[in-house]
Amino acid sequence: MTDDQSKSIEKQPKNTQAPSAPVPAQKTTPAASNISSAMAQSNTKTPKAPEPQIKKVDIAIAGVTYPIFCPVHEQEELLSAVSYINNYALDLKRDAPSLSQESILVLCCLNLYEKIHANQRSDEDRLQKDKQSEVLLNKIMKDAHSIL
After folding, report:
1. How far is CA 119 from CA 65, 116, 126, in A?
2. How far apart are CA 105 and CA 27, in angstroms?
3. What distance in Å separates the CA atoms of residue 39 and residue 22, rounded to the nearest whole number?
4. Percentage of the chain with pLDDT > 70?
5. Between the CA of residue 32 and those of 25, 44, 139, what are the distances in Å?
6. To the nearest whole percent, how much of the chain has pLDDT over 90?
7. SS3 at position 29
8. How many whole angstroms separate alpha carbon 93 and alpha carbon 109?
9. Do residues 61 and 85 touch, judged by C-beta distance below 8 A?
10. Distance separating alpha carbons of residues 40 and 22, to the nearest angstrom
11. What DSSP state is assigned to residue 99?
12. Which residues share a beta bridge with 66?
């Protein structure tokens, strides 16, 4: 989760108002009474979903610490990503010590994009080869059946 997303979560208003006073009963028609009682029943039967557990995690990349808010269940994956990116950033910093932190992070992003794109192409190539293999296998089986 990005820092901007977490700030928007922090800014969400929390319902801290006291419960509203009961509304006096009004005369209603039988149909309106049935609708309002059905709505009341549906409101009492709907369980509220638990709020997501968000945790502030301080991460360090190439010696700079960033506060990140992430769901608790994603913290381990975040730390794994930080470790990978930090190692890559430190390698860049060692090879080009004059690069700014921003330049290092831009190069990290470009490298990650390149790796993701290469994996996608590899997956597409694999699917294409699987289709070709299936077509060839079906042809061989058809030819074998015609011979037998």
Report:
1. 30, 5, 10
2. 66
3. 16
4. 66
5. 13, 18, 69
6. 43
7. coil
8. 15
9. yes
10. 14
11. S
12. 59
